[in-house]
Amino acid sequence: MRHLFLVFLFGLSTIWSCSPDRHTDLKIFKYNQTSGITSLDPAFAKNQANIWAASQFYNGLVQLDKDLLIQPAIAKSWDFSQDGLQVNFHLRTDVYFHENEVFENGSRQLTAHDVVYSFERIIDERIASSGSWIFNGLVREKSPFVALNDSTFQLNLQQPFGPVLGILSMPYCFVVPHEAVEFYGKDFRAHPVGTGPFQFKVWEEGTALVGLKNPNYFEKDENGETLPYVDGFKVSFMESKKMEFLSFMKGDLDMISGVDKSFVNDILNENGNLLESWDDQLVLFKAPFLNTEYLGFNLNGQQKWVKEKAFRQALNYCFDRQNMIKYLRKGIGFPANNGFIPYGLPPFHENEFIGYTYDPDKAKELLESINYQGEEVVLNTNETYKDMALYIANEAEKVGLKLKVEVVQPSLLREWMVSGQVDFFRGSWIADYPDAENYLSLFYSKNGAPPNYTHFSNASYDSLYRDAFSFGDLSDRLPLYEKMDSILIDEAPVVFLYYDELIRLTHKGITGAKPSAFNALDIKYFKKN
Predict the structure, then answer these.
(1) CA distances (Å), origin 330, targets 173, 283, 325, 326, 394
(2) Is the torsion defined by CA of 452, 454, 455, 459 positive or negative?
(3) Which of 21, 88, 148, 426 has the smallest C-beta neighbourhood within 10 Å, fewest atoms?
């Protein structure tokens, strides 16, 4: 291992002989991306690797703060029309694109016309953006995006949709200049030109990506200091989590997200907290992550028992979620006792129990009520979650409920879920945008699969879901969200497993790196001593 580590260091030092961080006076924040980056074009910001990188180079109309509340970005303010069908965004006039050869005068001011261009590009079939779905059924077919003048952008909706600001906070909605797209063509993916806190320096695919501080960035902190604090960032692309961890411990990386299972016992105790021996060197951040893990029932499937509500409820009562997290996840995560909406996202209530606890006697009682006689039900999962599925099957057997765990490839399982060929399956949902509607949409009967893999249909639920659209204010939507989540708990179209949790490690000299529940990487707020 030491030999491999030295080879890696030699290779990286050779590549970065002209790297900015060789100058000791520059503060360069360094992290690794094991999965690699496929594009720096916001239109293809479809995974964490692409999102983290694009977020350093671009801005959207709005952005999320640490509490997942919508805050101004390029737009300094906005207002909804009385009927909720139009949203007018009033843009800042001090936002400029990075200096680049694509502009006649080196740079230029961002205008509402750039927002129109960027949004139209997302839905352009020729672009084939992975984010084209975000405006499906949401915006008006004719003139959905309008520049009323250089500093006013208008969004026209088909129907009122309260969570629209959350959608606009997604990286797909970052604003790009037409000059750069036209100049670079297909290579725009590797030549980002935005308005963000960092401007592009170099990207050697599979080796490293570097961005340097944008000296003309428009955002300031609460004390009036211009962001970002650090002079730049560098991303390496070690595919091995072990190599990533060793590089971090050597000090060549400032942060890692998650801990490789080979080293987790050397860093974390049984409760998932940092061992005392590392307190003077490392900082551990833990935060709720907007991901709900579950087992889903296909309510239109062939297996009769999954169509029985009492059977579904019995499965929810038959295992101890807290023990599952303690022994199978090293204490990382939260038991899903509060419905489908995950911990960290309103209207989640941390101290108000409204869901399922471990109650094997209740599970037996429910099974007896439907005269269940121990018939086998198949649970399909992938290899990653096999241990968890076997744990639940073992606990279910104690109450007389027989599960057979079958492991299939993730791509095949997803195909079966989409086509309805599987009756009982392991699933998860990571938030696309920070609004509970994103989770509740999985059970709206008008939605196909995806996202409604369970084929759940409930008239009261559907009515509440539609009603929630009409409220632009989150506080007005929350009571409806609570009622919908309560229906899901009662009807149990899924077995609620756990809400995920983020683990982020930094060295002592890094501040400002605490993650939000959306797992954003806001390097503009990071400081490096």
Answers:
(1) 37, 18, 7, 5, 19
(2) negative
(3) 148
Taking only the tens place, the pLDDT of each residue in 214-232 is 999 999 999 999 999 999 9
Cα distances (Å, whole numbers) of residue 106 to 102, 193, 256: 7, 12, 36
CATH 3.40.50.720 fits 25-250+508-528, yes or no: no
Q: Where are the domains of the chain?
A: 25-250+508-528, 289-500
pTM value?
0.87
Which H, E and C letters describe 134-193, residue by residue? HHCCCECCCCCEEEEECCEEEEEECCCCCCHHHHHCCHHHCCCCHHHHHHHHHHHHHCCC
Does the structure show a pLDDT above 60 at 143?
Answer: yes
For the chain, the 3-state helix, strand and coil shares in percent, each to the nearest 5, are 35, 20, 45
List phi, psi (to 5°) of 334: -130, 135
pLDDT in tens, 415-435: 999 999 999 999 999 999 989
Residue 86 pLDDT class (50, 70, 90 cuts): very high
- Return the H-helix or E-strand segment holding 487: helix 474-491
* Cβ-contact 98, 92 below 8 angstroms: no
Place of tokens 């018939």: 375
For residue 348, the Cα-to-chain-centroid distance in whole angstroms is 17
Q: Mutual orientation of helices 474-491 and 459-469 as an angle, nearest 10°?
A: 170
Note the pLDDT of residue 350.
58
E strand or H helix at 500: strand 494-507
For the record, the structure tokens of 395 come out as 């606990």
The fold for domain 289-500 equals Dipeptide-binding Protein; domain 3 (3.10.105)
Question: Which of 9-23, 92-106, 296-310 shows the lowest per-residue confidence on average (mean pLDDT)?
Answer: 9-23
84: left (phi over 0), alpha (psi -120 to 50) or beta: left
pLDDT tens digits, 382-402: 999 999 999 999 999 999 999
Count the neighbouring beta carbons within 10 Å of the beta carbon of residue 210: 20
Q: Residue 439 corresponds to which tokens in the numbers above?
A: 């989770």
